[in-house]
Write a structure and sequence with these properties.
The protein is mainly alpha-helical. The protein is built from three helices and no strands.
């Protein structure tokens, strides 16, 4: 029984990792859509995310906080989608 529980926990961890990866992929696609709206800023959200994470690392922030910073930076221009 203990082996079954360990196996189930491992499957849950794997599913959580896959969910997180899919979520980040969706965020990256949304950021790409934002950047495509304006050819002058193509790649901007990715660069902002990269530099924001570097700053967070230099501040010694833990990995979960760096993930939040990365996601926030990728989405910082989301309002541009609705602007003509």
């Amino acid at each position: 029984m203990a082996g079954d529980i360990e196996q189930f926990v491992e499957q849950l961890k794997q599913a959580a990792t896959e969910n997180h990866d899919l979520f980040l992929g969706s965020i990256r696609m949304l950021a790409a859509a934002i950047d495509e709206k304006d050819p002058y800023t193509r790649g901007h959200s990715g660069r902002v995310a990269k530099f924001a994470v570097i700053v967070g690392q230099q501040l010694g922030l833990p990995a979960p906080e760096l993930d939040k910073i990365r996601i926030s930076a990728l989405l910082h221009d989301v309002g541009k989608i609705g602007v003509g």
